Amino acid sequence: MLAAKGGVMQYGRWKGFVAMLAVAAIAVGAACAGGAGKADARAAGTLLVAGATGGTGREVVELALARGFKVRALVRNEAKARALFGDRVSYAVADLRDPAVVPAAVAGADYVICVLGSNSRREPDNKPELIDYGAVKALAESARAAGVRQFVLQSSMGVTDPDHMLNKILDNVLAWKLRGENALRAAGVPYTIVRPGGLSDGPAGVAGFKVMQGDPKVLGLTPRADVAAILVNALGRKAALGKTFEVVGDEHGSPPDWDHFFDGLRADGR
Description:
Layout: E1 4-5, E2 8-9, H1 11-34, E3 46-50, H2 55-66, E4 70-75, H3 78-85, E5 90-93, H4 102-106, E6 111-114, H5 128-146, E7 150-154, H6 165-169, H7 173-187, E8 191-196, E9 198-200, E10 208-212, E11 221-223, H8 224-234, E12 243-250
Parallel strand pairs: 3-4, 3-6, 4-5, 6-7, 7-8, 8-12, 9-11
Antiparallel strand pairs: 1-2, 10-12
């Protein structure tokens, strides 16, 4: 217990106490989001994050840095990215609608996490066929040529349903995402495909997940930070390779044991 004089904690000890609280808060935050506060032994190498300035992409970058990865942010607007990440990451500036620029952006990366997503309502030039399919295909093929160890793709639940509402209102976005998935599978690079349901901005590590396969018609939300934790924790895990699965948040569940999270999932084609 810290001593106090006249009901007021002495300044030196108070300062040390605040420092201890700050360190503890950082450790707890890292543990909730990613399962461990220290650098991960699997995290040797460079991680390319495509879509780094998006909502999920920002969470991926922060968690990957905490895990000890050297992060390369693949972005169109470097000034926007630097305002978020400063000098903590390196930058590959490219417009992924042009496949010719992709190989240079991927060269030297050990891992790729792709969290790209089109929104043709907000950005009419970013059609799903150019982003959710074309850019993913170019990244996957470049990753294979560059010897990338693993490509982790955020896709979406509902991609196998051609009558899904999102296809009707967003230029067949889910159909193009499915084509992007298939392009990744065909590219020959080791991969993991995560299909979250709706995304929310809640805190990470509060609850658990419902993990499914076969693209069932299930409604549910998952915090972006939790999706980012799944994407980052898939890296370097043999149990995650060649697998596609759906996930939604489970408010009654417990935070996952990442060492076994991917074990029971069926590999594609089995």
